[in-house]
Specification:
With about 160 residues, the protein is an alpha+beta fold. Helix content is about 45%, strand content about 15%. The chain is elongated, with a radius of gyration of 26 Å.
């Protein structure tokens, strides 16, 4: 087992130390909430929601104490209706995460949450010597699906970086 050097910090600690103040000032949230969102939201909503910001109430309540804020959550399409019905449970989970009544209301904003999946473009077919070399490598393969898969792989590898050797 290796032990960290004295005074050494993990990069994640340093990054969180830099990012947390910016997130807190701009959105009222921290990286711990963002990182734990999939556990807080549960498997029903983890893939279609993302916390955007917490709007904290100005001042305090009539006794001068803390007032809970409003959490804005981005949600995709029709799942927002289901999220509306599960609001009470989600508020409880969020407050349990913080350890106090931090949120009293959820505001749902419909917008895309997941990153668009990049489709890999098919590489251009090999020409000349590279194409003949690949055909020679695949000579003994009889299974058509395997042959097509190896042809795609060989085309991508041999045609990479513009050098078709």
């Amino acid at each position: 087992m290796s032990y960290p050097r004295k005074g050494a910090k993990q990069i994640s600690e340093l990054a969180n130390g830099l990012i947390d103040p910016v997130l807190a000032k701009r959105a009222g949230i921290n990286t711990a909430l963002l990182g734990s969102w999939s556990e807080i939201a549960g498997e029903d909503f983890a893939d279609c929601t993302r916390p955007e910001k917490i709007a904290w109430a100005r001042g305090g309540d009539e006794t001068g104490g803390f007032r809970p804020g409003v959490l804005t959550i981005a949600c995709e399409g029709a799942r927002a209706l289901f999220l509306t019905h599960a609001q009470g449970e989600l508020i409880q989970r969020i407050n349990s995460f913080f350890g106090f009544a931090a949120v009293h209301q959820i505001r749902i904003v419909q917008k895309p949450v997941s990153q668009a999946i990049r489709r890999s473009r098919t590489p251009p077919p090999l020409k000349g010597e590279a194409a003949r070399k690949l055909e020679g490598m695949m000579e003994g393969i009889e299974n058509d699906k395997l042959r097509q898969a190896i042809q795609r792989l060989g085309t991508a590898v041999m045609g990479k970086r513009g050098n078709q050797r």
